[in-house]
């Protein structure tokens, strides 16, 4: 992905009589009558809206997101014609996404799209390379924008698409978008009976689509174009899954559950995010929690920071948290308990990367004098977790019960979101427990509270007239009694950073227990059937190719969502979406590699490899 040029516009984008034009491909994004063409080519020749009219879930895939015109029109038509309880997944691949302002400008010529165009552009404000999930239409539409090269993105995608819109730049100018490999990947991600439509009728594109298994027809093209292509896939391609899932059958996702009901155990951040995502996908969800938990849940602390971690490595884990933050920052807009104050990350142990502000600039951004340089994250903020969970669980399909879950929940998908509580599954999916504490300070006279949250070796969050500072990290400890001595080191640190005297009033302390994992990724996915894995995968240490092993057996309808360590406020929402998608058979909102890295069976596989 290229970056914006210094004027804030994309350097490859030009405006030609009000129409966006790509210098890179020497082609317009759409012709003069773009909206009518989009309707004719993509909706009409995929037989839409008729095909989605009676479906509770429908998935559209698109190559070439461009200005968002097809997505915008589809959302408009879907809103008017879909069942009131339906949900739509709209996946789009784009190697060079436009900025939100350019999208708005391009779509402004159709005032009738106004509200949808604006919502779409806002959703696309902070797209990152890779998978970007955004939720629209009060939770009924999931937009998944895959930013990157088309073949890599399609390989990483785990989805069964009902209708494809093939809308890349012209085949002669952008042949990679229409290659044989791409057509095979499209077919491998198309449901039986799924369809495609495209404005082009190029002979080699037709042949590639036919070779991939599609029945292809010609139809009169739109406007001055002579012909176009459309067609369908009579039977889903019965080929081994593409990409790395083929090499790792143990992580393949289980078949979706045929059920209208799900259970979530635990109403912290993880449980609430999962329950809401399941409810929005049409399931009735019962959430169980305990009024008096055995281990103090950190989701009941007064303030948690939601932010990206640019100071950490840009590896798979870094990319996962970037994607999780992008999703959370968009989803939390208008949510109860969300405070989009921005976050200043103060330099700590030399860890800072990207654009660093000097102390004076950081002071300006956070509204209180600081002596150290740092980073400014304007889209980040902090969450009041209990206010957020209460509001998030307030959904007509969610029922909350303050009681232990029944022992037998056969046949019902059950998600364990029990944080640091001890479970029967700890030997399969191990977590480490660490007590942490934060304290509330009254600001001394004449010293302003920061207007933004602060991070970097702890946290400082301005609440109503006071500041919550933290936090400690006591590995292996699980008691929740507040401890004034434990507070001393982080309180002193924050008093120094804020330039406050040592005599400030410490009003109260709160402690809770985090659950972390050895590789610092949460555990999100189905629970492996450990005995079966140990017998079937005993040979993996001999290096037999993954494809020779059977697909991993899982404990029926048991799912895990925990192990967020110190980042649950940033990642729980995206992880809830991953579980809901996997349970209902919807497109996974993360790439296959990330799904594998989150899988609760990963420790078992590592142990078998080492055995
Ligand atoms: C001091 C401190 C500061 C932190 N700061 C940040 C921060 O700034 N940003 C950030 O992102 N993260 C932060 N974290 C981490 C964050 O709070 C956690 O990652 C997150 O709250 C974990 O949420 P959870 O839902 O997975 O678990 P929990 O919050 O532990 O929730 C689990 C829930 O399950 C329930 N439960 C357990 N067992 C059962 C059972 N058998 N039946 C029914 N219910 C059950 C519990 O009662 C609880 O409600 C911090 C943590 C600590 C301790």
From TrEMBL:
Positions of region (FAD-dependent cmnm(5)s(2)U34 oxidoreductase): 265-611
Signal sequence region: none
Cofactor(s) needed by this chain: FAD
Region annotated tRNA (mnm(5)s(2)U34)-methyltransferase, chain positions: 1-234
Could you tell me which Pfam families the record lists for this protein? DAO, Methyltransf_30
Answer whether the UniProt record assigns the keyword Flavoprotein to this protein: yes
Q: What is its main location?
A: cytoplasm
MnmC-like methyltransferase domain: which residues?
131-232
Which InterPro entries does this UniProt record tie to the protein?
FAD-dep_OxRdtase, FAD/NAD-bd_sf, MnmC-like_methylTransf, SAM-dependent_MTases_sf, tRNA_MAMT_biosynth_bifunc_MnmC, tRNA_MNMC2, tRNA_S-uridine_synth_MnmC_C
Mind telling me which GO cellular component terms the entry cites?
cytoplasm
Q: Name one GO molecular function term.
A: flavin adenine dinucleotide binding
Q: Where in the cell is it found?
A: Cytoplasm
Reaction(s) this enzyme catalyzes, per UniProt:
5-aminomethyl-2-thiouridine(34) in tRNA + S-adenosyl-L-methionine = 5-methylaminomethyl-2-thiouridine(34) in tRNA + S-adenosyl-L-homocysteine + H(+)
Q: Superkingdom of the source?
A: Bacteria
| GO terms of biological process kind | methylation; tRNA wobble base modification
Entry keyword set? Cytoplasm, FAD, Flavoprotein, Methyltransferase, Multifunctional enzyme, Oxidoreductase, S-adenosyl-L-methionine, Transferase, tRNA processing
What SUPFAM superfamilies does the record tag this protein with? Nucleotide-binding domain, S-adenosyl-L-methionine-dependent methyltransferases
The task this protein performs is described as:
Catalyzes the last two steps in the biosynthesis of 5-methylaminomethyl-2-thiouridine (mnm(5)s(2)U) at the wobble position (U34) in tRNA. Catalyzes the FAD-dependent demodification of cmnm(5)s(2)U34 to nm(5)s(2)U34, followed by the transfer of a methyl group from S-adenosyl-L-methionine to nm(5)s(2)U34, to form mnm(5)s(2)U34.
UniProt lists the family membership as follows:
In the N-terminal section; belongs to the methyltransferase superfamily. tRNA (mnm(5)s(2)U34)-methyltransferase family.
Which protein is depicted?
A: tRNA 5-methylaminomethyl-2-thiouridine biosynthesis bifunctional protein MnmC
Q: Which organism is it from?
A: Abyssibacter profundi
Q: What is the lineage of its organism?
A: Bacteria, Pseudomonadati, Pseudomonadota, Gammaproteobacteria, Chromatiales
Gene name of this polypeptide:
mnmC
């Amino acid at each position: 992905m290229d970056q914006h040029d210094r004027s804030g516009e994309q350097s490859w984008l030009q405006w030609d009589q009000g129409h966006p034009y790509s210098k890179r491909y020497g082609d317009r994004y759409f012709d003069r009558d773009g909206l009518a063409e989009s309707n004719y080519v993509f909706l009409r020749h995929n037989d839409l809206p008729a095909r989605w009219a009676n479906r509770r879930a429908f998935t559209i895939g698109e190559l070439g997101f461009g200005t968002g015109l097809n997505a915008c029109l589809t959302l408009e038509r879907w809103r008017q014609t879909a069942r009131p309880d339906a949900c739509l997944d709209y996946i789009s691949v784009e190697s060079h996404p436009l900025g939100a302002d350019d999208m708005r400008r391009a779509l402004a010529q159709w005032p009738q799209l106004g509200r949808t165009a604006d919502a779409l552009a806002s959703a696309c404000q902070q797209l990152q390379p890779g998978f970007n999930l955004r939720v629209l239409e009060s939770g009924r539409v999931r937009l998944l924008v895959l930013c990157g090269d088309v073949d890599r993105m399609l390989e990483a995608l785990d989805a069964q698409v009902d209708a494809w819109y093939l809308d890349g730049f012209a085949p002669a100018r952008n042949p990679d978008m229409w290659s044989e490999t791409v057509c095979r990947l499209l077919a491998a991600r198309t449901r039986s009976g799924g369809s495609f439509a495209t404005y082009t009728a190029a002979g080699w594109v037709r042949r590639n689509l036919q070779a991939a298994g599609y029945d292809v027809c010609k139809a009169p093209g739109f406007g001055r174009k002579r012909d176009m292509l459309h067609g369908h896939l009579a039977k889903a391609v019965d080929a081994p899954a593409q990409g790395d899932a083929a090499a790792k059958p143990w992580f393949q996702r289980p078949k979706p559950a045929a059920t209208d009901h799900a259970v979530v155990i635990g109403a912290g951040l993880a449980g609430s995010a999962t329950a809401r995502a399941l409810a929005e996908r049409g399931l009735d969800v019962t959430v169980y929690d305990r009024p008096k938990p055995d281990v103090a849940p950190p989701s009941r602390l007064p303030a948690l920071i939601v932010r990206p971690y640019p100071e950490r490595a840009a590896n798979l884990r870094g990319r996962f948290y970037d994607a999780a933050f992008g999703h959370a920052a968009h989803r939390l807009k208008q949510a109860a308990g969300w405070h989009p104050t921005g976050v200043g990350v103060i330099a700590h142990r030399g860890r800072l990367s990207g654009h660093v502000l000097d102390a004076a600039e950081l002071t300006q951004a956070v509204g209180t004098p600081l002596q150290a340089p740092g980073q400014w994250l304007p889209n980040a903020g902090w969450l009041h977790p209990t206010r957020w969970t209460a509001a998030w669980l307030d959904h007509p399909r969610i029922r909350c019960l303050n009681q232990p879950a029944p022992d037998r929940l056969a046949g019902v998908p059950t998600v364990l979101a029990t944080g640091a509580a001890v479970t029967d599954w700890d030997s399969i999916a191990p977590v480490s427990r660490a007590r942490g504490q934060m304290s509330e300070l009254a600001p001394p006279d004449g010293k302003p509270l920061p207007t933004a949250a602060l991070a970097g070796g702890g946290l400082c969050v301005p609440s109503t007239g006071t500041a919550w500072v933290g936090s400690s990290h006591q590995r292996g400890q699980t008691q929740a009694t507040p401890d004034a001595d434990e507070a001393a080191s982080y309180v002193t640190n924050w008093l120094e950073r804020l330039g406050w005297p040592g005599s400030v009033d410490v009003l109260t302390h709160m402690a809770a227990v985090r659950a972390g994992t050895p590789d610092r990724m949460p555990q999100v996915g189905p629970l492996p059937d450990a005995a079966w894995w140990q017998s079937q995968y005993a040979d993996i240490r001999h290096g037999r190719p993954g494809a020779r092993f059977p697909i991993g057996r899982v404990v029926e309808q048991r799912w895990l969502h925990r192990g967020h360590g110190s980042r649950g406020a940033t990642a729980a929402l995206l992880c809830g979406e991953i579980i809901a998608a996997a349970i209902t058979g919807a497109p996974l909102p993360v790439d296959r590699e990330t799904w594998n890295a989150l899988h609760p069976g990963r420790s078992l596989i590592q142990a078998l490899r080492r055995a």
